[in-house]
Amino acid sequence: MDNEFTIDEQPVPFVPGQTILEAAKAAGYYIPHLCFQPDFKRHGGCKLCTVLVNGRTQTACTHKAAVGQEVDVNTPELNAMRRSLVQMLFIEGNHFCPACEKSGACQLQALGYEYEMMSPHFVELYPHREVDATHPDVMIDFNRCILCELCVRASRDVDHKEIFAVAGRGLDAKLIINSPTGKLGDSAFAVADRAAQVCPVGAIVIKRVGFATAIGDRPYDREPISAEAESCELPEVR
Amino acid sequence: MLNLETAAAPHRLRRVAIEPVSRVEGHGKVTILLDQENRVHQVRLHIVEFRGFEIFIEGRPYWEVPVAVQRLCGICPVSHLLAATKAMDVIAGFGPLTPTAEKLRRLLHYGQIVQSHALHFFHLSSPDLLLGFESEVAKRNIVGVAAAFPDLARQGVMTRKFGQEVIRHVAGKRIHGTGIIPGGVNKALSVEDRDTMRSGVDQIVEWSKEAVGLVVKLHETSPEFYRTFGEARANMMGLVDARGAPDFYDGGLRARDADGGPIFDHVDPASYKSLLQEDVKNWTYMKFPHIKALGAEKGWYRVGPLARVQVCDVLPTPLAEAERRKFLAAGDGKPLHGALMYHWARMIEMLLAAELARGLLDDPDIVGTDLMADKGPRREEAVGVIEAPRGTLFHHYRVNDDDLVAYCNLIVSTTNNNQAMNESIRAVAQRFLSGREVTEGLLNHIEVAIRAYDPCLSCATHALGEMPLEVDLFDAEGALVSRLRKG
Ligand code: SF4
Ligand code: FES
C-alpha cells in the first residue's frame, strides 16, 4: 500500500521523487505529453499532460507522485481540453501535414489523431515565419515550431552550447538562435548535437533525408502515440 | 476561317458564360459572345491555373518538393510526384537509377495511366458517348451508363481499381504515396503484392482491349462525325524512346506537324526552354505555350493520347500496336485531329499501359531489393519530364546552396493543350451553336469537346461525370437574360 497512488482508480506504484508522468509511464499508463522527454529538465510548458490530482489540475510531467493521490487522466473533459490545446498549436503555426517530412513521426500530428481532431476548430493565424536552411546539415522550419523548448534544453544541458532560446511572450514568442547573424549556419550547431534530434515536430530536421522512410511505415502510422505506454518507451522522435 | 479568339466589336454582343459551380481544385469557364441572330463571334476557354503553387514551392527544401507537388491537384498526384522526383534525382546528385527502382517507378506510372484513362473514359465520357450528347441530363452520367450497360460499367470500375491497386502497392497509398524518393524508391515490392497484381493483369489487358473495341464500334456508327467533331489541326508533341515508341516515363521530345511531318526529334527535355515559349494573354491566367521556331500563330501544339499515338512510329506492345494501326487507317494515312479521336487513342494507351504493366510484373527485377542509386555531388538545376496521362508534364527547378528551391516552373499537360482546346471548342461552337437557340444539349457539345482532352479541372472530374455548370446569358447591354444551371 505504501508508495502507491491511483490513476483513473487503478493502483499505480511509484518511487519517491518520481513525477506522476514518470510513474505512469513505468506502469504502462499513457499520459499525453509534448514538451517532456525523460532526458531533459522538466518544463511544464505544453500542458498536454494536464491531469486532475485530487480534483485539481496539475501538469503530470512536473507534479510529484505521492501516496494516496487520486489522479484522473482519461476523462472526457480533460481529453476535450487536450484536443483544444492541440488545435491551438496547429492554428498558431503553419502545419501542412501532407507535405511535411515528419508526417507519421510527428508528435503533434499523432496527438491530433489521438484526440480525434477533425478540424482546426479555431481560426488559423497563418503567421509569417521563415525557414532557416543556412546550416549545411540541419534546417529549421519555424513554421512548424511549437515552442516546446526541447531543443533549448538539449542544447543547454546536454550539448552545453545554448544555441536556442525563446524570446518574446504569448503569440509573439519565438525561437531564436544564438549566433552573430541569428542564423543557424553561423552558430556552433552540429548535426550530431542532441538538440538536432529532439524536435517532436518537423521544425528541426536533418537535411536531405526526409522521406527515406515511406509514409505509411512510420512510427505513428503503425501504432497510435498512446501505444508508447505499453512498450514503456518513447518512440524515436524521427 | 473566322478567328473566334477575339470578336471585332465585343461590346455589341451577347455573352454566354459556362461556368462550373464547384471550384475546389481549379476550375474552367467558357465564355461565348453571340450577336442578335445567335451567331458566334468569340469563344474562350478560361482555366484558372495554379501559378500560386510555384510560389508555394519556392523557399521549400528540395526533398520535400516531390511530396508537396502531389497536392498541386487532386487529379494526377502520381504524375507530379514522378516529374518532380525525376528532377530531384538530378538535383540531389544521384546517378542512374537501379533497374528495380526504374521499373517500380514505371509500374507505378502505368498503373496511374490505367486508372486515369479508365476513370476518364468510363466515368466521365461514356455517358455522352453511349447515351448521346443531348440525352436526358438527369441520366447522362455513370449511373445512367450502369443502368443501360451494367457489364461495361463494372469493367470500367474494376479496371480503374486495378490501376489504383498498382499505385497503392508501389507508392504505399492509393493517393499521395511517398514510395518514390530522389535516387530511387524507398520500398521494395513484395512477392506477394506482385503476385496479386500479376493474377489480375490479364483480365485488365482483356478488358482494355474490349474498351478499344467499344470506341471503334462507336466510331463506326458515324465515322465522319467522330473524325470531325471539334477538329483542330495541330502540331503534336510527346516523349519517344530511341526506337520512336512512346515513352511515358522518359525519353526525348518529338514534335510533328499537323500532316505528320517532323518538327524536332529526340531532343533532351532539359532544353525545353529552347524549344518552347510560354505566352501570356490578357484574358486568362493560363499560359499559351508554343513551339518557338514556328511562332505563336503556327506553333501551338497538342499533347496527350491523341498526340502520342501519332507522333510515335510504333507502340512497344503487340495488342496496342495492332489497335494503333486500325486507328491510323481511319485517317487514311493522315493524322487525325478531331477531339473525339482522343477517346480512341486514350483506350489504345490504356491497353498499352496494361500490357507494359504485365511485362514488368513478369520481370524478376520488379521484386529486387537494390533500390537506391549511387550519389554524387549535388547539382543546382534540373528538369523532370514525363508523359502524364493527359500529356507532357514539365517540372523545372533551381535549388540554392542552402538546399531551398529558388526557382520553379511547371508546364502541366492542360497548359500544353490550352490553345488546342480553345480551337476545338471554337470549331464546335461555330458548327453547332451558331445561329441557333442555345439549349442545354447544345452547350453540352462544348463540354464534350473540352472533356475529350481530359483537362485537369475539377469540373471535368466531378464524381458523377457531370460538369457542374452555370450558364449565364447576357444581352448586348450586359444584362442577365437567363440562367441555366446543371450539376
Ligand atoms: S524547434 Fe522543435 S524542439 Fe525546438 S522549440 Fe520548436 S518545436 Fe520544440
Ligand atoms: S508534457 Fe507536461 S507540460 Fe508538456
Largest interface: A-B, 20 and 23 residues
Indicate the CATH architecture of the largest domain in chain B.
Orthogonal Bundle
How much strand content do the residues of chain B show? Answer: 15-25%
Which stretches of chain A of 5+ consecutive residues score pLDDT under 50?
none
Query: Spatial order of the strands in the main sheet of chain B?
Result: 3-2-1-15-16
CATH topology of the largest domain in chain B: Cytochrome-c3 Hydrogenase, chain B
Helical content of chain B, roughly?
40-55%
Q: Note the run of SSEs of chain A as H and E.
A: EEHEEEHHEEHEEEHH
CATH structural class of the largest domain in chain B = Mainly Alpha
Overall strand count of chain B: 16
List descriptors.
heterodimer; A: 238 residues; alpha+beta; Ubiquitin-like (UB roll); 2 domains; 5-stranded mixed sheet; 6 helices; 21% helix; B: 487 residues; Cytochrome-c3 Hydrogenase, chain B; 5-stranded antiparallel sheet; 4-stranded mixed sheet; 43% helix; 20% strand; binds iron/sulfur cluster; binds FE2/S2 (inorganic) cluster
Structural summary, described in words:
- The complex is a heterodimer of chains A (238) and B (487).
- Chain A is of the alpha+beta class and 238 residues long.
- Chain A has two domains: 71 residues, Roll (Ubiquitin-like (UB roll)); 146 residues, Alpha-Beta Plaits (2-Layer Sandwich).
- The N and C termini of chain A lie far apart (40 Å).
- The model of chain A has no long low-confidence stretch (mean pLDDT 91).
- In chain A, strand 1 and strand 2 form a beta hairpin.
- Chain B has a five-stranded antiparallel beta sheet, covered by helices on one side.
- In chain B, a hairpin with a 5-residue loop joins strand 13 and strand 14.
- In chain B, 54% of the residues are buried.
- Classes of the chains: A alpha+beta (238), B alpha+beta (487).
- The interface between A and B is medium-sized, with 20 and 23 residues.
- The structure holds iron/sulfur cluster and FE2/S2 (inorganic) cluster.
- The site of FE2/S2 (inorganic) cluster has 12 residues of chain A, from loops.
